[in-house]
Specification:
The structure holds two protein chains of two kinds. By secondary structure, chain A is mainly alpha-helical. Chain A has 21 helices and two strands. In chain A, α3 packs parallel to α14, α9 runs antiparallel to α11 and α14 packs across α21. Chain A is globular and about 70 Å long. The model of chain A has no long low-confidence stretch (mean pLDDT 89). By secondary structure, chain B is an all-alpha fold. Helices cover 70% and strands 0% of the residues of chain B. Chain B has 20 helices and no strands. The radius of gyration of chain B is 23 Å and the shape is globular. The model of chain B has no long low-confidence stretch (mean pLDDT 89). The chains are: A mainly alpha, B mainly alpha. At the A-B interface, α5, α6 and α7 of A face α17 and α18 of B.
Chain lengths: 504, 539
């Protein structure tokens, strides 16, 4: 969608990640008694970062394709480490997604009173890391931002969380750091194995063909290292625990964007740089993701805690993303990236409803204890149902197009797996409808619920924004797919040439 | 021949000793009395003089090194340029003085690191509990620093030994400086006994090496340079006769220095000593003393035993010092990190963490298993970068702990509970140090670790890098316990804690350094890269 041109002299991508780092520093110097000011600084800069992402999104020229708005600065050139930023058709939807989630997440954080200043600093630091990962094209830089995005989570969950927060925080951090240690192995192998001594990803992808043997050995650490963050089975157990323990905005960011970081790393670093290894391992990974998709959905069915349902549904949906990655064809990868976007928005909406609108008021998330919420806060019910419909893959919602492409892509390569995975569709419908019934339409269990405080304007705004995107993309998916299609093409070509070289 | 022009080259050590005497002498003019006020006054004036002097010396060494400012050839001749020109004539150039005292880039960088460490330690002590005999304390600190400078510069066995002793003996006394406390006395005594033992081992290794060299040359060479590192290397190159003795000597030297840098299995003393010693002293022992040990170890191995570097390919038999160090690295990483897990005393936990850190530093030395100069250069840079970063980080961590233990009266992990609500600034500074130790970007500790991993990986120690990565994750668990205590757990009482000025200065300096060095490592990497030209290496 090339609507206008932007000046090439402005470092747009640097500005994007700086736009959430600067408020961190600002908030540090604001006295902590200025609570409203701190919130406005945080929310204002979050929205600024969204606007910057949208500018980039609409200025990208899909006809030209490739990486645009590239910035290069020497960092440690003698070691082949440079500051390289660039955006392509995969990056930009992710940037916009992150922009929307942090903006609405900021609105949903308005009720945080306890140690407000630290909360906002950490939240924005986390966002900075996420933006940085999406825009960096140098593997080292990529990794620096990646860890920056993971660590603030420990404190955000540990301090402001609920339900076994210390355990959840520690588990999440240890899992994700273990994942990142795995990917360091892949990183070092690429650095030395290429013979170029560089971390420049486009350079590596275009000029280096690693030996087959090498790729078969080092593809798994790199891929799995990132797939841990994407919640791939059997490394998914941190994710429901973490989501449940986290405060609302953090759950939104985490399930909405951070897990996408993992899938993005798999796609960008592992599959792009080591296509031979990918071809070798992807079938095995595809089999693993069946567990994610079907088992995740089944477990979600059995949960009584509302947040756990969403947590396991994330595992299930992210499983679909990784499964589509494993299909490795054009339509599969396009579906994967679209699903990353759709699931991000949808999960954001879910956690906003469950964590902020319901739990913050009722202080319980047990399905049997809730009920009749549609009467108490109809808006929350509408929002949850909208998200639920998208989650079930109802036509007219973003989720439909994503899952549709994913299943076509997977069918093309692994028909059996596609059939098995399709079982998750009715299960998803079942657990969503069960939750909708028990929470919103059953009789009111506790008369106190009828006296709950009204929703605030921040909650209305955040919910409406996310819902509009969900429906908007559902009605006009080409706004994203056109761009994603261009973005995944080079990766598909790499994978394809690997097949040709190896034989079918 | 020692020439008058060599004096600028040993100026920093001379100045340190002079400053030590000055601090001792000036104490006479203070008010000697037993009341607390005058004791504090004496303490502070000795500390201030030390700090002032160390800042001067640091500036002089920095000027001398020419890293920041190099006087152009065609500079006008006047009073100031003459001073600078004379100083810079003693910069990192030339052969070792008399063949024994090298003033190459390694020495200069080591001096800067060690003097900075002494300065930060002195700042930490400024507001620490008043001590009896303050002047002696600072004189010991300064002479120990001078000894460390000599350790980094020593290019000959006897000087190396003397430097090690000059470094260690003051440290024994400083570790036991709170005589009234059993823990402190115990620390001093333990440190002394272990130190004496390790000196014996070191000396034994040196005598074996000397025997080999003397035998190899069979008195055909003038006998006064047989202990020089490059002569040892030449002897090993010329003669195969009695090589076993040389290898044994090398092992003993590594073991002796292994005690100083506290690598497993020579680490037994360090948790007790670190825990018992006054916290600023712990900061100094765990950083400067360890760094100096590594500087010496690096120089000995590279200049005296370059032919015995061995390889990491086969482990059937000991093939050289990289094989030996690989084994020590493995032990150090595993034992250091696992033993840290169950600790409940913050100081002891940091002690085990420093042991584990020594394992990461050793990884860099493994680069010598590769025959390619480019890999070895990477190893050298990685080693020095890690040492500098580690020194800064650990001083920050122990410094912050010193503040807490002074205010709360203990150094258990539970004493850190809820620190974020009592002093947020201090907590942030502490957190930065701890996260840098854990290797979280963008702090300097991350790039340091990444860099040594790169060096070791390229040298063929892939499996060791993978183990090191696993231990990094283990270490993250105990580093996160600090964060958990400080941010998450509720404090026993909510009274705010104040950070004294001197300590605050130290902590802010270390934090800023960790951020700056982490985000822009090239600021010092360009200087560090010159270390490769070790004086006398490759004879």
């Amino acid at each position: 969608m090339h609507l206008f041109d932007i000046s090439p002299d402005v470092p747009w991508l640097s500005l994007t990640w700086l736009s959430t780092l600067i408020p961190c520093l600002l908030i540090m110097v604001v006295p902590s008694t200025q609570r409203e000011l701190i919130r406005w600084i945080g929310a204002g800069f979050s929205i600024l970062s969204l606007i910057l992402s949208l500018i980039l999104f609409f200025a990208y020229d899909p006809l030209q394709g490739g990486f645009q708005f590239v910035e290069r600065l020497p960092w440690m050139p003698q070691l082949g480490i440079n500051y390289i930023l660039g955006a392509d058709g995969i990056t930009l939807p992710m940037l916009v997604l992150n922009g929307f989630i942090i903006s609405t997440g900021a609105l949903m954080s308005w009720n945080i009173e306890n140690r407000l200043k630290e909360y906002w600093v950490l939240l924005l630091l986390l966002t900075t890391g996420v933006y940085g990962v999406f825009v960096s094209l140098d593997l080292f830089l990529f990794f620096v931002f990646y860890e920056l995005a993971v660590l603030p989570m420990y404190l955000l969950i540990g301090v402001w969380g609920s339900t076994r927060k210390e355990y959840g925080a520690m588990k999440l951090t240890m899992f994700l750091m273990a994942g990142s240690a795995l990917s360091i192995i892949g990183l070092l192998a690429i650095y030395f194995g290429s013979g170029l001594r560089t971390f420049d990803m486009p350079l590596l992808a275009e000029n280096v063909v690693f030996s087959r043997q090498f790729q078969i050995i080092f593809f798994p650490p790199l891929f799995i290292g990132f797939a841990v963050l994407a919640g791939m089975f059997p490394f998914h157990t941190w994710s429901p625990t973490g989501h449940v323990a986290a405060p609302t905005a953090v759950s939104m960011l985490h399930a909405g964007v951070l897990m996408k970081l993992g899938a993005y790393g798999c796609l960008r670093a592992a599959m792009w740089l080591m296509p031979d290894g990918a071809q070798q391992w992807l079938p095995i990974i595809a089999v693993m993701t069946i567990f994610n998709v079907v088992y995740g959905a089944t477990i979600a069915m059995a949960q009584r805690d509302f947040k756990f349902i969403i947590g396991y549904s994330s595992v299930s949906h992210m499983g679909l993303v990784v499964m589509a990655l494993a299909a490795g064809n054009q339509i599969g990868l396009t579906g994967a990236v679209l699903q990353m976007f759709a699931h991000g928005i949808m999960t954001g909406l879910f956690f906003a409803v469950v964590g902020r609108m319901i739990y913050e008021r009722t202080h319980t998330r047990q399905l049997p204890e809730l009920g009749g919420m549609a009467r108490v806060m109809p808006f929350a019910a509408y929002m949850f149902i909208l998200g639920g419909l998208s989650s079930m893959g109802m036509p007219g919602f973003a989720g439909f197009w994503a899952e549709f492409s994913i299943f076509i892509g997977v069918w093309e390569r692994y028909p059996l797996i596609a059939i098995i995975a399709a079982i998750s569709i009715p299960i998803t419908g079942a657990y969503i409808l069960r939750a909708v019934y028990q929470v919103f339409f059953d009789e009111v269990k506790d008369p106190e619920f009828l006296k709950l405080p009204k929703l605030t304007w921040q909650e209305y705004t955040g919910g409406i924004v996310l819902a509009i995107i969900l429906i908007g993309v559902g009605i006009y998916p080409a706004i994203l797919t056109e761009m994603i299609d261009v973005g995944v093409t080079p990766i598909v070509q790499q994978l394809h040439s690997a097949v040709v070289a190896v034989g079918p | 021949m020692f020439q008058l022009t060599d004096i600028p080259r040993i100026l920093p050590e001379i100045l340190l000793i002079v400053l030590a005497l000055l601090v001792l002498g000036s104490d006479i003019f203070e008010r000697w009395s037993n009341d607390a006020a005058s004791q504090r006054e004496r303490s502070r004036s000795a500390a201030s003089l030390t700090i002032f002097g160390l800042v001067m010396i640091f500036v002089i060494v920095l000027l001398q090194s020419g890293y920041v400012y190099k006087l152009p050839e065609d500079a006008p001749v006047n009073f100031f340029t003459n001073i600078v020109r004379n100083l810079q004539s003693g910069g990192p150039v030339g052969d070792p003085i008399l063949g024994v005292f090298a003033t190459d880039h390694l020495t200069v960088i080591a001096r800067l690191t060690l003097i900075a460490a002494a300065l930060l330690t002195a700042l930490l002590t400024l507001d620490f509990r008043p001590i009896g005999h303050p002047a002696e304390f600072y004189a010991l600190l300064l002479s120990s620093t001078a000894g460390m400078g000599l350790m980094a510069a020593a290019n000959e066995l006897i000087l190396a030994y003397l430097a090690v002793e000059l470094t260690s003996i003051p440290l024994y006394i400083m570790a036991g400086y709170f005589r009234a406390e059993t823990k402190s006395s115990e620390a001093g005594m333990k440190y002394f006994l272990f130190g004496a033992l390790s000196s014996g081992i070191l000396l034994y290794g040196m005598s074996l090496t000397y025997g080999f060299v003397a035998n190899a040359f069979n008195a055909s060479i003038s006998a006064n340079n047989l202990t020089q590192f490059d002569t040892i290397a030449r002897a090993a190159f010329l003669s195969d006769d009695g090589r076993g003795m040389l290898i044994l000597g090398m092992i003993f030297i590594i073991a002796g220095l292994g005690y100083k840098v506290a690598v497993v299995p020579f680490h037994g003393w360090s948790p007790d000593v670190y825990q018992g010693a006054p916290t600023p002293v712990t900061a100094f022992v765990s950083t400067a003393s360890k760094a100096a040990g590594f500087f010496l170890l690096y120089r000995v191995l590279v200049t005296a035993f370059p032919g015995l570097n061995g390889s990491l390919e086969s482990f059937d038999e000991l093939s050289g010092w990289t094989t030996l160090l690989a084994l020590l690295t493995l032990l150090t990483l595993i034992v250091g990190n696992l033993a840290a897990l169950p600790q409940n005393n913050a100081k002891r936990l940091l002690a085990y963490s420093s042991i584990a850190q020594a394992g990461f530093i050793l990884l860099a030395l493994l680069a010598w298993a590769s025959p390619l100069p480019i890999d070895r250069e990477m190893g050298a840079s990685a080693l020095i970068y890690y040492l500098i970063v580690y020194t800064v980080t650990n001083i920050g961590a122990f410094g912050a702990l010193a503040v807490v233990s002074m205010a709360v009266g203990g150094d258990e992990l539970s004493d850190l509970n809820g620190l974020a609500r009592r002093n947020l600034g201090l907590t942030v500074l502490f957190t930065v140090s701890v996260l840098s130790l854990a290797g979280i970007p963008p702090l300097a500790g991350f790039f340091a670790k990444f860099y040594v991993f790169m060096a070791a990986w390229q040298a063929g120690a892939t499996w060791l890098v993978i183990i090191a990565l696993v231990t990094t994750i283990i270490s993250l668990y105990y580093y996160l316990r600090f964060l958990k205590a400080m941010f998450i757990t509720a404090p026993a009482d909510d009274t705010p804690i104040a950070t004294p000025l001197g300590m605050n200065a130290t902590l802010i300096v270390t934090t800023v350094l960790l951020l700056v060095l982490g985000i822009f490592p090239n600021l010092i990497l360009s200087v560090i890269d010159q270390v490769q030209a070790v004086a006398g290496a490759g004879f």
